[in-house]
Please model this.
Amino acid sequence: MAYLALYRAWRPQRFEQVVGQEKTVAALCNAIKEGRLSHAYLFSGPRGTGKTSIAKIVARSVNCEQQEAGEPCNQCSSCRDINNGNFMDVIEIDAASNRGIDEMRDLREKVRVLPAQGKKKVYIIDEVHMLTTEAFNALLKTLEEPPDSVIFILATTEPHKIPETIRSRCQTYHFRRLTGDEITNRLQQAAVTNSIKLDEEALLLIARRANGGMRDALSTLDQVYSYKGQDISKDDVLDVLGLVDELYLAELVDALLAKDIPGIIASLDLAMSQGKEAQHLVRETAFYLRDLLLYSVMGEKAQLMVVQKAALPQLQRQSREAKRDMILSALRIMMETAEKLRFSEGNRFLLEMAFLELAELFSGQIPAAAKPAASAAPREKKAVPAANPQPGKSKAAAAKGEADPAWNRILAGVKEKRVPTYALLAQGSLLGIKENTMYIGYKKGFNFHKEKMQEKANREILEGVLRDLYQKTIELEFILLEDEQYNDIVVKKAIEFFGQDMVQIKD
Ligand SMILES: Nc1ncnc2c1ncn2[C@@H]1O[C@H](COP(=O)(O)OP(=O)(O)OP(=O)(O)O)[C@@H](O)[C@H]1O
Ligand SMILES: [Mg+2]
Ligand SMILES: [Zn+2]
Model:
């Protein structure tokens, strides 16, 4: 089954075809109609929300031979050439691919040459935040004195990385994430046009997972179609995306709340036997917990990602049973586990330990091994984190999981054998296990502990504990971390998972 390349076929060709971004569209369309476009624009906003599409509409419209009410005709030779990339005066630069040094140098020379073919030269610089400092400087020189016949459209997903000197010379438009309805409408049109039958739940699922990006929604539809053909159910989407059903997750969380350990292990077994990956399970559970948290705060107004209709009654009940600070801590554990799994390539042990830790958490107990030993220097508190982390705490520290199942078990094992070794090890943190090597990180200032831990006597104790736990020989690697490096990894992962917005609410 071939790809339909839906996202390309469904690129809006006229302003009126753009979904959402109403203010941007109206402002640009009017400016073109009235011949008062600026010299430079900055389009900022999330992936796949229409930045490049609108830039190209502008490029065509200003060069169109029969432009009407600000819209390009898409028929004349200029419009067609621009669409085929054969138009000399529309120059697209992808700053991500070569960081733009040559282009920007070139630009300074060529920008003053009048348009060869059309009325205006339009430079579209995509991913502009990737330009090097020299390239930015060259661009700035041009923006300071832009020739009349030139329009710059800079597009970026990361506007904060663009120097203020550049930003202040551009008119900025912010592109918003598209709503669920906007995405489902467009998806449905694309499906109907291609004789794809998408059932309601499948449609909703794809739209929600796109997180406001139209490109992602269309590519997902494409991907599911190419595997499953023209009849698409919710299960098909779950399958292709490696997702887990909402009812499964609801039951897993029920088992967690009930501290039903055999139930938890059985659920995990079931998912693994169906070929789900540990990393996906952790990610999906995190998404479910995120839904639970939002629902408990906002009720019906929450925009849920995983839960649609089927699991809603369970989610409602759970939102009354589970305390918010517990859910938040559970989310942190899941995020940290996801990070470990990245190093450990699907380690089943980590998965089970994380879920057992969650069960402990929800039953209101703190695992014994997590209590700091009297002899150890003060570690970050391991008790259940408060609902409002202290204001002084950095975002990194807040997002870092504060409980760590695998590590707790290892520490407990070492402590049983020799308390001084435990005290040294307790200052480190488990970074992960990969190809039979365990990586243990020590923060700056703990070099002494690291070196001591590397000594044969201490190392052998740890190796023994690991052999007992993992039933095999595991090599050790001790790493001295730069200050916040470890936290940074976890936070980065969290942002990948939830988007910037979600991570910020943890402050
Ligand atoms: N606002 C929108 N209306 C209709 N379709 C859209 C919209 N935004 C994106 N799309 C669809 O997604 C595809 C990609 O959009 P586009 O290239 O304009 O996104 P972008 O914002 O430039 O993303 P990126 O930041 O990843 O470059 C388009 O071809 C189109 O199919
Ligand atoms: Mg783009
Ligand atoms: Zn035209």
